[in-house]
Amino acid sequence: MNTDAVSVAAIVPRPVRLSLIWSVSFTMLWTWLIHSLPALAESGFPALGVRLMAHGLIALGLWLGLESTDLTPGQRQATWLVFMVPFTLWATVTWTAAINGAFRVGASSLPLLPAAILLPVIVGAPVLLLSKRVGQLLDAMPPSWLIALQLYRIFGSQWLVYWLRGVLPGLWALPAGTGDVLTGLFAVPAALALATGTVEGRKGAILWNIFGLVDLAVAITLGMIMSPGPFQLIIPNGPSMAVDTFPNVLTPAFVVPSSILLHALSLRQLFRRSRPATV
Fold first, then answer.
1. In sequence order, what are the residues at sequence separation of 6 or more whose Cβ sits closer than 8 angstroms to the Cβ of residue 177?
2. Do residues 219 and 179 lie in contact, with contact meaning Cβ atoms separated by under 8 Å?
């Protein structure tokens, strides 16, 4: 082992290295499974399981965060319901629309899929970024939670598998899939580094959020200009975009806007703190 390797090993804490190793191993296993068993991802059950797990973690984290505030029990319950009821309705409506084919090309004269991506962000971001009650919650909640939650982004490796099968164009699948996988792989390490309370950990968390947002912006932009519809500027030379049917359409219709909002909340939480918080 050379001097550089020893220096890196000394700088990177052991839990961060182990979390990255486990994340990489799980990502490789998941990628192998959906490559070997195409019907697994196409069944929609993995997408359902991941969304239910993320939904449950958000509900639990929100409640635990509220318990750390100085709000009264009634205020905590009301705040929890104010956020979880619309979030659950949003997920239910999107899921139902996806199953019924509402987002398919030609199903409506309106651009429903772009609207499903952008409207939640346009409506939700100002509320989440300006609300005083949300600020109280973010101050009480460990900043590592919002980052570690996006471990689910590793499931974006499915886009790389679809490209290898010739189902999706590489111009979209390669940047979108690679960006998602990298964001998911470094979610837990970034959260653990932030939990150490160091300046470097806080900077790393901010950079992780920025990278995740850039990945989503690239995927949205390429997806809109490559998909059939009023915004199409590029016609792929090969397989066309095929992410408008269930269960794949749930990623742009729900996962993408919810991930953008999680990044926005995490950045607000990080910038609200005058010094790195110790978890």
1. 156, 157, 158, 159, 160, 163
2. yes
Q: For 83-134, what is each residue's pLDDT tens digit?
A: 999 999 999 999 999 999 999 887 777 888 999 999 999 999 999 999 998 9
Angle, helices 170-185 vs 14-36, to 10°: value is 140
List Cβ neighbours of 151 (8 Å cut-off, separation of 6 or more). Answer: 23, 184, 187, 188
Between residues 96 and 229, the one the model is more confident about: 96
Q: What is the pTM of this model?
A: 0.89
Give how far the C-alpha of residue 126 lies from the chain's centroid of Cα atoms, to the nearest Å: 19
Q: Could you tell me which of 172, 277, 267, 270 has the C-alpha nearest to residue 215?
A: 172
Contact call for residues 230 and 114 (beta carbons, < 8 A)? no
pLDDT of 176 over the 90 cut: yes
CA gap 110, 21 in Å, rounded: 44
Q: Return the DSSP state at 251.
A: I
pLDDT of residue 213: 97
Task: List, in sequence order, the alpha helices (H) in 14-142.
Answer: 14-36, 38-42, 45-67, 73-99, 112-130, 132-140
d(CA 248, CA 133): 35
The residue type at 145: W
**3-state DSSP assignment of residue 106:** coil
pLDDT of residue 259: 95
- Which secondary structure element, helix H or strand E, spans residue 177, and what is its range? helix 170-185
What is the Cα–Cα distance from 112 to 262, expressed in whole angstroms?
22
